[in-house]
């Protein structure tokens, strides 16, 4: 099936012809107004609403509204955002930027901010419908060049949704000439050990002509590695590990998800680095076609993981976490005694934020261990890639 067989209006970003009407409705939404007032001074709100009412296209919205907002966010919650590997980017091409996943909201937003700073076009962004807990959030993200990934569907409906999503991504690349951002897996890796889901690659291959490899080649997949110095949600993830240890059937509430989004958005992240890597097309051409899709998806997933892992930016906290976890001094030259002490204090401050009753000393140690695992895994995976599997 190709793009002509589908109506994408329920998942695609809003067309500019719809923009003004959708924006007019959005700025009347109490939930949206509450969110604005939460992130900016009350006296600035009327001016912002006035500006929003004048905007009638996605480009102006991103460059006049989102760009200064993200710059403000970067200035107040990071120690700087950097972008490497731009030499691999060809402005005459459109890409699927396939990345690891660290923050629900900011991974794609900060990547697009880095693009805007360099005069590069922004990408469309894949976002799961599980995050669109209110109608106004659905409208906001689709005004901001996001398209919807439908999750939690039945088996038959899920296959149809995957085919439609695959067709939309190919349509965006080849006909709309828009690049796409999508994470390598559904949800974030809680332990920061990032691995590409084979099901994602199979979804991408559901549209187009030719073999599995040829279908992926047509999408110009470029792995991009994302590194955050600090994860504001680290203590929330540690708590989630504890809750699942206590009850294997534990599930986060909608309130938990919203608080995670808010924490990731507004709390300090330290340095943030994006590393672009060569698109995988050349490697796909070299290996030839596989006999079956499962083998092909497994190999291509490993190819993407290799590119992401070797491109991590490693910070002192990662080295300290590794050495504490393994009771070693292997990376003692990578940090000072003061940095080690500061890191230990940071972990304790974060664990003190866990709002859970009757946490035993043993359970606190468990949560600390999980935080050490989170911060050491990027280093561990990078070493595996660079040293051929030896850590």
Account of the protein in words:
With 391 residues, the protein is α/β, with parallel strands linked by helices. The chain folds into 2 domains: 3-230 and 268-313, Glycerol-3-phosphate (1)-acyltransferase (3-Layer(aba) Sandwich); 317-386, no CATH class. It is 53% helix and 9% strand. It is built from 16 helices and 7 strands. It has helices spanning 16-26, 30-39, 45-54, 58-77, 106-117, 135-143, 155-174, 198-204, 212-217, 234-246, 254-266, 281-287, 293-310, 316-325, 337-351, 361-386, and strands spanning 80-84, 96-99, 124-128, 146-149, 180-183, 221-228, 271-276. Helix 6 (135-143) links the parallel strand 3 and strand 4 (146-149). Helix 1 (16-26) packs antiparallel against helix 6, helix 8 (198-204) crosses helix 13 and helix 10 packs across helix 16 (361-386). It is globular.
Task: List the quaternary state of the chains.
Answer: single chain
Number of helices: 16
Q: Which structural category do the helix and sheet elements fall into?
A: alpha/beta
CATH architecture of the largest domain, by name, is 3-Layer(aba) Sandwich
- The total strand number stands at 7
Uncertain residue segments: none
Largest sheet: 7 strands, mixed
The main sheet orders its strands as: 1-7-6-2-5-3-4
| N-C termini distance | 45 Å
> What is Rg?
21 Å
Share of helical residues? 40-55%
């Amino acid at each position: 099936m190709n793009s002509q067989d589908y109506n994408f209006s329920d998942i695609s970003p809003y067309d500019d012809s719809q923009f003004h009407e959708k924006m007019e409705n959005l700025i009347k939404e109490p939930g949206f107004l509450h969110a604005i007032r939460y992130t900016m001074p009350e006296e600035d709100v009327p001016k912002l609403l006035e500006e929003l009412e004048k905007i009638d296209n996605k480009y102006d919205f991103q460059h006049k509204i989102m760009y200064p907002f993200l710059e403000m966010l970067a200035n107040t919650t990071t120690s700087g955002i950097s972008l490497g590997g731009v030499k691999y980017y060809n402005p005459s091409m459109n890409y699927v930027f396939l990345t690891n996943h660290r923050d629900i909201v900011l991974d794609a937003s900060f990547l697009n901010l880095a693009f805007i700073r360099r005069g590069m076009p922004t990408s469309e962004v894949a976002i799961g419908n599980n995050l669109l807990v209110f109608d106004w959030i659905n409208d906001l993200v689709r005004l901001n060049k996001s398209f919807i990934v439908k999750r939690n569907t039945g088996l038959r409906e899920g296959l149809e949704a995957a085919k439609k999503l695959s067709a939309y991504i190919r349509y965006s690349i080849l006909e709309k000439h828009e690049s796409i951002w999508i994470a390598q897996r559904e949800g974030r890796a809680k332990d920061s050990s990032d691995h590409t889901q084979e099901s994602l690659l199979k979804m991408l291959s559901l549209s187009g002509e030719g073999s599995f490899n040829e279908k992926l080649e047509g999408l110009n997949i470029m792995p991009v590695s994302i590194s955050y110095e600090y994860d504001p949600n680290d203590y929330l993830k540690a708590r989630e590990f504890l809750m699942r240890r206590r009850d294997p059937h534990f599930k986060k509430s909608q309130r938990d998800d919203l608080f995670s989004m808010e924490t990731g958005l507004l709390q300090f992240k330290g340095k943030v680095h994006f590393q672009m890597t060569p698109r995988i097309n050349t490697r796909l051409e070299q290996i030839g076609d596989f006999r079956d899709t499962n083998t092909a998806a497994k190999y291509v997933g490993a190819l993407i993981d290799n590119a992401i892992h070797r491109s991590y930016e490693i910070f002192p906290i990662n080295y300290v976490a590794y050495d504490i976890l393994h009771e070693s001094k292997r990376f003692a030259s990578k940090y000072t005694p003061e940095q080690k002490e500061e890191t230990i204090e940071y972990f304790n401050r974060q664990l003190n934020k866990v709002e859970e009753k009757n946490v035993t000393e043993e359970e606190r140690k468990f949560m600390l261990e999980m935080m050490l695992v989170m911060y050491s895994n990027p280093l561990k995976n990078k070493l595996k890639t660079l040293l051929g599997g030896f850590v």
